Amino acid sequence: MKQWIQNMWLNDEGQDIAEYAVMLAVILVLVVGTIRLIGTQSNTAFSQVASSIQ
Question: pTM, whole model, 2 decimals?
Answer without folding.
Answer: 0.54
